[in-house]
Q: What sequence folds into this?
């Protein structure tokens, strides 16, 4: 059953049948948090054993990680962890902030009444996740919240560009939620965006969304780039 677990040699592994999405998430998180270091070789056989799968889904996962810029794949030399410099990471977040700002602006101008109501309900429902400190559930909410903004902009090309950029940044964006108090602050930042959209205030919506991503960038990079390497402790 995908997503289940089993025990092998005392290690908790993802059950055979693990989806490529799950492996991409697991490996990218290990890269972002410093467990896997830049330049480190990613052995397909070792990864297949770790996640209890065949090498075919491992190759697909590595291909997707390469497209995200987290892995370098070289002919006849296998895959290694890529070097993501702070400058390049900052430039990606800079682009993300502008794209999300455009989406929020267009939402304020173009969202239908039903879309606005759905956005408001979804946002208010997330408050209980913050109170419960439900990090994983809130992370799922966060992804859906931003997707609503991309679709609510009613601009397919902008939505496509924004989604592609988000996919590349997703491991770094997840890292922010490991910082104490970040869930509450994230919800408050969303609240400013939602309030402006519901008022039809395009300019304020854009500023709030751009500022939100700038804060996410700082929070994510602080955790990701300063995370200790367990092998050095």
A:
């Amino acid at each position: 059953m995908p997503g289940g677990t089993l025990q092998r040699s005392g290690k908790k592994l993802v059950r055979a049948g693990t989806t490529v999405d799950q492996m991409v998430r697991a490996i990218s998180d290990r890269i972002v948090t410093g467990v896997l270091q830049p330049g480190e070789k990613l052995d397909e056989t070792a990864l297949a054993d770790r996640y209890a799968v065949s090498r075919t889904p491992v190759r697909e996962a590595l291909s997707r990680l390469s497209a995200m810029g987290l892995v370098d794949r070289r002919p006849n030399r296998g895959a290694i962890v890529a070097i993501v410099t702070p400058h390049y990471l900052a430039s990606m977040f800079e682009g993300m902030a502008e794209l999300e700002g455009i989406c929020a602006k267009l939402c304020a101008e173009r969202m239908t009444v039903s879309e606005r109501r759905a956005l408001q309900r979804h946002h208010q429902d997330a408050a209980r996740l913050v109170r419960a400190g439900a990090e994983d559930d809130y992370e799922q909410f966060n992804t859906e919240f931003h997707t609503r903004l991309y679709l609510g902009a009613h601009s397919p090309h902008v939505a496509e560009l924004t989604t592609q950029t988000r996919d590349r940044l997703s491991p770094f964006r997840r890292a922010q939620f490991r910082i104490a108090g970040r869930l509450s602050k994230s919800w408050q930042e969303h609240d400013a965006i939602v309030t402006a959209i519901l008022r039809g205030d395009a300019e304020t919506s854009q500023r709030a969304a751009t500022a939100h991503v700038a804060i996410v960038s700082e929070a994510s990079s602080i955790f990701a780039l300063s995370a200790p390497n367990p092998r050095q402790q």
